[in-house]
Amino acid sequence: MTSTASVSTHILDTSLGRPARGVTVRLSARTASGADWRPLGEGTTDADGRCRDLPAPPGDTARVRLDFAVEPYLRERGDAFFPEVTVTFAVRAGEHYHVPLLLSPFGYSVYRGS
């Protein structure tokens, strides 16, 4: 199957003003909103907070999910109020989706970047 989209992400620790290194990011996909999630792969953020090795979703993908395992990273800094962050979004054929995570010990936000 051909890929419908490409997905990339990075994490910025807004409490420190620098990238979050060493966070595991898992990528899953499904064909429709009610379908089962299929794990596609995972990676770990590098010194720039970027996860550079996420696979492309298969051609029948309609939804993508990024699971950020932030607890180990946040515990090193004190507290992990949000131990996991999950972001689900719709994808279209031929599009690139860069979805950054802005993280702090007691909050987070995401957006579609470029």
UniProtKB/TrEMBL annotation:
Residues 35-58 are annotated as: Disordered. Its EC number is 3.5.2.17. One of its GO terms (molecular function) is hydroxyisourate hydrolase activity. The keyword Transmembrane helix does not apply. One of its GO terms (biological process) is purine nucleobase metabolic process. CDD domains: TLP_HIUase. It is an enzyme of class 3 (hydrolase). Keywords: Hydrolase, Purine metabolism. Residues 7-113 form the Transthyretin/hydroxyisourate hydrolase domain. It catalyses: 5-hydroxyisourate + H2O = 5-hydroxy-2-oxo-4-ureido-2,5-dihydro-1H-imidazole-5-carboxylate + H(+). It comes from the Bacteria. Substrate binds at H10, R50, Y111. Catalyzes the hydrolysis of 5-hydroxyisourate (HIU) to 2-oxo-4-hydroxy-4-carboxy-5-ureidoimidazoline (OHCU). Belongs to the transthyretin family. 5-hydroxyisourate hydrolase subfamily. Homotetramer. NCBIfam families: hdxy_isourate (TIGR02962). This is 5-hydroxyisourate hydrolase. It comes from Streptomyces griseoluteus. The gene is uraH.
